[in-house]
Amino acid sequence: MDELHDFVERTMEEGFERLHKQQKAAQDEFRKQHEEDLKTIEELRDQLWQAKEERYQEMLNRQKAEQDAFEAEHRARLAEDLLTEEKKQRKAVEASLAKERLEVNVLREELRDAWDKKHSLGTEVGSLHCILDEMLRHQYEGPSEVENEFGAETELQNYTILTHTELVEATSNFSQGLKIGNGGLGIVYKGWIDSKMVAIKVLRSEFPQGSRFLREMINLLKLQHPHLATPIGLCLQPQSLVYDYLFNGSLEDRLLSKDGIRPLTWESRLRIAAEICSAIVFLHSNGITHGNLKPSNILLDGNLNVKIINSGISHLFRDHYHTYVNNDPGGLHSYMDPEFFEEGTLTKQVDIYSFGVIILRLLTGRSPLLLVEEVRKAKSAEKLKDLIDPVAGDWPYVHIVQLANLGLECCNARRDSRPDLKSHVLRVLKPMSPSSAANFVPPSAPVEPRQPPSYFTCPISQDIMQDPHVAADGFTYEAEALQAWFDGGHDTSPMTNLRLNHLNLIPNLALRSAIRDWLDNSSGS
After folding, report:
1. Which residues of the chain have pLDDT under 70?
2. Cα dist from 493 to 14, 388, 418, 479, whole Å
3. Nearest CA to 454 among 437, 469, 472, 433?
4. Which residues contact 485 (CB under 8 A, 6 or more apart)?
5. Tell me, what's the pLDDT at 409?
């Protein structure tokens, strides 16, 4: 009985165990099938989204294709319209060209006739030139007539008097290849006279003719100054002046470094400013206004010495001078006194204003247009060094300030506020200039009141020193002025622009005593 009971229990346990295994297998199978179903659903979902994206992209592509097709059709219509318009214009141009060809043919025939007439008149013209040259010789070179007109002291034989034929030969018939300048007063040619290279200025026809021109030229030839380019000859028909040819060109060429020429150093610019000033003082002392002062009329010889041209001939152009200033291709209006445009009077104040602009150009190397206002603003902002021409070298700061002040004073809008060139401007420039050439004083100039020696004047303040002290650079300054220089953050020499070894000052007792003696003697006299 017990055995049967054990058998039944084992059989039931085995049945339960098989049933449990079958259930577990069924559950595993169901789980596996469920996972596969989920994976399949996920793949179907991805495929569905991909299909939607492809369909959306296809829609965008179709819209873009439709837009491209519309734009292509629009461009095609525009191109067709442009082609139609181009055909119309081409027909109009062809018609115009046909008309111009006809006119050119007519002009060619007229030109051929003109050349034939010119050739036939050539012999007659040559004969007339010979007759004219002979008449001019008899009219102007006859010694008795010249002496009667200008006095027996006139010595035109010291100068070259060219005839028209000689002028044509000297300039190769006024060849364009020999033209070296074109200003408001005339055209300048390079030429050769007796194998010597010269510059020939052919004056404009508006100048006075005949005896008045000759009289004025003789007066001009009498003006002798180291820094005036005096003509070495003249021609009466056409009216022309002959000068020595200077190979260093003009001050304008140097300021622009034309053709790669070496720029001017600051020392040379100071000397040039002084030389220009001395020449203008000489002209004014003889009652002459230059009226045409600009860098292109300031020539430089082999040693870079100043030679000013066109001196004393502007007043001959007085009746047309206002028009000349406005139309001058050399830009004279940039150097012209503003009051001249209001009053139209040509006075020495015109030269003073022009010289002021030239000083500012020497300092900055910049265009004259609006230069005065530009320097005035830089001075007010204490930025003068930003305007200095860097190719000139290291300017001493004291000279920068002095030149800027002189230039602005000369360019004062009010004539009565401008300085006198002789008593003020030249007195400041001469001590700065490394050359004594600017010390030329015309023999006929009146004697000035006694002036202090230049070494009595402080290089910074330009006033007679009351308490002179020697600095480390060896120069003597007014103690208060030099201390202000140091207080401004400078540790360099105001004269040489080099760094000082120390900032100590030594009283110059000997110079102080000499200054006091001079002041006592001056006040006593």
Report:
1. 1, 114-159, 184, 206-212, 259, 312, 314-332, 434-451, 454, 510, 523-525
2. 122, 18, 30, 14
3. 433
4. 460, 477, 494
5. 95
Distance from the first to the final alpha carbon of the chain: 173
Kindly report the CATH number that applies to the domain delimited by 257-445. Answer: 1.10.510.10
- Show the tokens assigned to 423: 């008593």
C-alpha 276/C-alpha 281 separation (Å) is 9
The structural domains of the chain, with segments of one domain joined by +, span 30-140, 156-245, 257-445, 454-524
Tens digit of pLDDT for each residue in 34-80? 888 888 888 888 898 888 888 888 888 888 888 888 888 888 888 88
Does an H or E element contain 71, and which? helix 2-140
Contact predicate 337/348, CB 8 Å: no
pLDDT tens-digit profile of 195-218? 788 999 888 776 666 666 777 777
* Burial 405-440, CB ≥16 within 10 A → b, else e: bbbbbbbbeebeebbebbeebbbbbbebbebebbeb
Interatomic CA distance for residues 322 and 345, integer angstroms? 9
* Cα 337 to the center of its chain, rounded Å: 19
- CATH for 454-524 is 3.30.40.10
CA distances (Å), origin 25, targets 17, 30, 32: 12, 8, 10
The tokens 């044509």 sit on which residue?
168
> Which amino acid is residue 416, in one-letter code?
D
- Name the residue among 385, 401, 387 with its Cα closest to residue 458: 401
pTM value is 0.58
From 358, 390, 183, 181, select the one nearest 275 (Cα to Cα): 358
156-245: which CATH topology? Answer: Phosphorylase Kinase; domain 1 (3.30.200)
Assigned token pair, 343:
């009053």
The answer, yes or no, to whether the previous bond of 143 is cis (omega within 30 of 0) is no
pLDDT at 118: 56
Alpha-helix residue ranges (DSSP H) falling in 204-337: 210-221, 251-255, 266-285, 321-327
Q: Do 156-245 and 257-445 have matching folds?
A: no
SS (H, E, C) 5-52: HHHHHHHHHHHHHHHHHHHHHHHHHHHHHHHHHHHHHHHHHHHHHHHH
Burial 121-137 (b: 16+ CB within 10 A, else e): eeeeeeeeeeeebeebe
* pLDDT score recorded for residue 37: 85
